[in-house]
Amino acid sequence: MALLEVRDLTTHFSTDDGVVRAVDGVSFEVEKGKTLAIVGESGSGKSVTCLTIMGLNTGKVQTSGEALFDGTDLILLPKRELREYRGKRISMIFQDPMTSLNPVHSIGRQLREAVTLHEGATKAQANSRALEMLRAVRIPRAETRLDDYPHQFSGGMRQRVMIAMALINNPDLLIADEPTTALDVTTQAQILRLMNELQRDFGSAIILITHDLGVVAETADDVLVMYAAKPAEQGACDDVFYRPHHPYTWGLMRSLPHLTAVGAELNPIPGTPPSLLNPPSGCRFHVRCPYAMEICRTVEPPLEPAPGDSHHLAACHLEEAVKQREAEQIVSEMMADTA
Amino acid sequence: MASCGRMSIHDLIGEGEEMKRPGLLLSAAALLSGVVLLGAAGCGGGGESGGGGGGSNGSSTPAHQQGGTIKMALAGGIDYLDPALAYYQISWQIEYSTCLKLLNYPDKTGAAGSELVPDAASAMPSVSSDGMTYTFDVKPGFKFSPPSTETVTPKTFQFAVERDLNPKQSSFAVPFLGDLEGATDYNTGKAKSVSGIKVTGSQISFTLTQPDPGFLSKIAMPFFCAIPTDTKIDSHGVNGIPSAGPYYVASYTPNRSIVVKKNPNYTGDRPAIPDEFDYTQLSIDPNQATLSVDNGSLDYSPDGVAPAQTRTLYQKYGPTGTNGSQRIFFNPCLCVRYMGLNTSRPALSNPMVRQAVNWAIDRPGILQTMGFKAGIPNDKLMPPGVPGADVEKNIYPLDSPTSDDIAKAKSLIQQSGVSTPISAVLYTCNQQPCPDRTSVMQANLKAIGIDVQIKQFERATQFTKEGTKGEPFDIADEGWIADYPDPFDWVNVLLNGEHIPDTNGSNYSYFNNAEFNKQMDDAAKLSGQQRFTTYGNLATAIMQQQAPWAAWDVDNNIDFFGPRIGCTVYNPVYGMALNTMCVKS
Amino acid sequence: MIRYIFRRLLWAIVLFLAVTIVTYVIFYLIPVDPARLAAGRNPTPQEVKNVAHYLGTDKPVYYQYGLFLKRLVIDHSLGYSFANRQSVNSAIFAAAPVTISLVLGGAILWMFIALPVGIYSALHPRSRLDRVAMASVLVGISAHPVWIGLMLSYIFGFRLELFPIQGYCNLKGSIAGQSCGGPIDWLYHMVLPWLTFAVLYAAFYVRMIRTNVMETLNEDYVRTARAKGASEIRVMVQHVIRNAMLPVVTMLGMDIAIALGGAVLTETVFGLPGLGKLAITGISTFDLPIIVGTVVFASVMVISFNLLVDILYAWVDPRIRLA
Q1: B266-302: per-residue pLDDT in tens?
Q2: Predicted ipTM?
Q3: Of A291, B7, B240, C126, which has the fewest beta carbons less than 10 angstroms from its beta carbon?
Q4: By the 8 A CB rule, do A250 and A334 touch?
Q5: Nearest-by-Cβ selection for C84 from B80, B176, B285
Q6: Which residues of chain B from 162 to 201 reach within 8 Å of chain C, CB to CB?
């Protein structure tokens, strides 16, 4: 049985302007010790999916579907019981390390809090755990830094602190919401490497939210590509990367910066993500899709397995032959570039 | 806003009361003699009641008791309690109950209350044949309040006057002693004593440099109150000086409280009914003071009746009020409000135009902007209460002008030959009711072809400008309260044009008529009833022929008492006499 | 740190000089002769001159100002009132406790009102209580303190006789002539003034606390705390309130400092003989030494509270501490 099984999850927010369908029918599984990457543009619902699992959404929320964690449906769990999962069995780190730590509490205090919220440790015990974790995330001279405040750390160091805090209770699942987006490139690489190593040491499963396919390629076992609150394509990392089946995935791959082609233009996907207040009919991507057909405007494509691979799903009306041809074309371009 | 007699520091410049002339502090009420304010009958006296005239509380034979503590509060605070410095109505009201003076005004209402009688003196003074030396015989037996053990002797008064004149005291009394022989030398440090004051045995005599029948009124001012001869000379004023009158100030906490107690050593015959007056607050809000007096938590707040509430209070507690016994009293002050018509500028230089103004203004209409029963319409130079005012004739309309009056005004302007429209600049203050009342004046004068342009100033700025020679105004919205009740202080001080200073003047009409200047100088030398009759006729002539003013009102003093207070006496000079207040038993 | 304090003190002195100089200059721009006002009767020009000499107003402004500084520095004296020749020092020392009673009591009261209401409103925006609170805030901010004071005093003092209509009693000991004194009388007389004073500020602070708490609730670190498994109460107490209070502390310090310079309206309505009343009387009588005295007191208050707030802020907010 998978560690986390999410089934047909929807999250709707009531706002003054109407109902925002932020997540609209998402299903996926995360295996113990494995990494699932959720990929998509801003506003595609990837963060909300995770916040829903954690019960951290604010505002007027309606949620349906289920999120079975170790057999317990987190969606139905009362707040009080959900709190025992948070930070203990499921931890989360956020996009912006600059604002995710409380500026008026010392690092040590915030780390200790994570411990004492879940177990009756003494301050000394909590302190030594905190120190241990700071060392684990390679913070230099960790013993001298427990009494320091967040503003005394750089962005990368703060994200290390966040990771330390997230892993301090040895959780089964770590949700990392764009953990490297706010960091410079060198630091990004360091943090990702750190997360990989820690996953090995701690054995936690990871849900990695990102819009960066490059990061996905380096870390993920499975990939879920989301577009406008719905899954566009999902499957094993290799499947999605080498046999992408959805024009949106193609677009994401084409928009990767080509490190070798200095000065070459980026190829962003034209247009902007649709409003979730009033999403387009039919396939939500049709407006921006260069392959769009008449049917795409009216009929919503079902999420279907690719032929011969029941775990590789995509939602697109294109004929299988077209998909294969395009996928091969893109993959060969990518190979050429990175060669 | 305080009514006119009730001036306090606050009022001097203050918010509502625009009347004061600067510097004058005035007091109030100054004195007056003669006349009639009907009024206040005292305890057990017959009560006329209140409407315009007087106030008395408890008319028939109410049961009163001796003693008790009267709880009071002040809105505007107190200036000084040192007799050499105190000069506001509120401090003079206290001094009226604490001071022993050579002469005083009796604790009576109406005409009787404004006639000087001996106080520490055993009789009225003898006057030398040249009218220059006044000799008083000091009654033995007066003693100061604790902690002083002194007795009052002629030397006491010599000391009091010399202390006032001491340059280190910087007393405000100095100007009233200008005619006292040797006073100036002593005041400028050139002499060691005042040569005009002589003490022999039980007698003290004052020699003047020129006859001044007004001297008696001056020497009766609280500046010349008996004080122990060991009182310090201190220009900052000494608080808690023992006094020899019926009461004394037992304690004074600046800005907070004053306690006035009965003087156990007092042997005179002035009444001293309550045991004590506690001024529990010196900075009460008038609205709050009115509420407090209404519900009895205070007995009396001399300057604390909120103008906005006088109508309601009158309906409840007036002479025909719904609440039984009368608790609010309206009494005219010794003051006049007037439009000073600037004779030195072309617009109003013609006397006929100034007479026209007097015929055209709507006195009750202007008064209406001032609040309920704020005063009574008046066209005379001198208010009722100043000796001689009863002789002065009423010339101009006290009611709203009729069409005949307007026609008369117009024809006067026509006869004057001045072409209309005449433009005139009017100076007034920038707080209500100044803007309201001057707009009524503006409308009145518009009707007879005078276009008035109103300029508003902060009050102190207004009178400073008006008192500066050459200031381009034609009409001054002014008022006057006398320092002491003598026609000299109205007619000569305000309208004699011989000595108009370049700045800080108070002859806002810049009236300078050689004929009348001479008549004023002559009248000042007269004494007795002749003095008052002459001044009355002189005032009539000035107003009739030259009309340097258009007088329009005499303000009312408004006093409101708590339910416990059974009787009061309104002295026309000092206002409500504290020493006569009694508590119902 | 020493350098910092030294700089602050230097700045305070500059500020102090600027404020007092401006006061002097403005005073003498008004075309009114203070000597004439203090001259005591219908004064001849000679008498006005004498009084001007006595008061020192016949000297040039810069000379008077220099004299003021000299007296202040050497004799620690603010001089004597023009209007009643009493020592300005003693007038201010007598008035200060009254204003301090009013302002500190009022501040405690308004924070007691504003904290729970503001936090509740932030946590339950658009709830019925939030709407009621926001409507009251509007009333509190719009209503004139004099009106509020008179209403409270009329209803609770005059009509219901629950509290004194007005007046002040000393906290310690009583003053001759006043039958009251001591903590109970003091409290009893201060209730309505505190309420009046607090209404306006409570309104401001409810709104401010509500906004700050709502903003803080949206902070990432609050989400972090929840993600750690902290309970809502713990989140509020440990993470939201302390951060949301930072700007409130600054405002509170400044508001208290400014009010200590004179809560004019409330003092006037309730006849409290405090600094506001003193200042108003001084202004209306053109009493320069009293005006300058209250200005000096107010600026010393503002300057020292500023410093105090900075220190407090640094204590609460580690980001400031080392900066």
Answers
A1: 988 899 999 999 998 888 888 889 988 988 889 999 9
A2: 0.87
A3: C126
A4: no
A5: B80
A6: 170, 172, 174-176
